[in-house]
């Protein structure tokens, strides 16, 4: 297929457009072909798109419009030299939409889907929003006869199989279009690196704070915090830490020993709780330590392990 000349490439591309449907596999196949030959004969392939929008069925025309959605999005990443389709679509958008949505009662079938894809292009800015806005205004000014005679004409123009297929393809097209809008990033809501780094560092440092002094972080957390702070903050933190280094070191050692002792005692507590002898022993220990003793309770203390 890489040895095709421009004429053979046109024939192959026209055949792909005629077989195009709403499935992602079909759209991706035609898109890949257009991307591969965009640098050599992009203008020729674009003429085929305009031609099929004038000659194809209404269903084929709306499928081409959704195919262009995928084509233009992939073309933006390659640039005009490799895939000039974004520039060509902006230039011929009015002509293209007039072919997909003709100013007749039959064009009403493609009106809603065309508006949806145009609104998507304006929102995602894959096409100049001003150009898209002008085309949408031209569609809003159209009037269609919705009388009973026109409804009967549409019913006779399409078989039941065509109607069912059109409903299924409309459902597939709208689902894919909603997915594209859902994954659209909004720059104003994306946090910067500076706003994310500071809260994360602070939360990691405060999570290891001492239970006796909640406002003062543990020395190990100060080390991790200093690794992520600027030089000026690191100097100020070291000065403030040096002022009370001796007192904080003594308290840290005491707290560490108390934590280890508490964990050892807690592991020895039976699942059924403490008995009266254990409670009396605890009160005696608290008196020796000159700690405040809670009022005596008649009910035994239960612990949840």
Automatic annotation (TrEMBL):
Residue stretches spanning the membrane: none
Record flagged with keyword Ion transport: no
Coiled coil: none
GO molecular function, one term: kinase activity
Single GO biological process annotation from the record: positive regulation of transcription by RNA polymerase I
Pfam short name (any one): CTK3_C
Composition bias, Polar residues: 222-235
Ranges where the record places region Disordered: 194-250
Keywords associated with the record: Kinase, Transferase
Record's GO cellular component terms: CTDK-1 complex
Composition bias type Low complexity, residue spans: 195-221
Residue ranges constituting the CID domain according to the UniProt record: 5-143
PANTHER family, per database record: CTD KINASE SUBUNIT GAMMA
Protein name, UniProt field: CTD kinase subunit gamma, variant
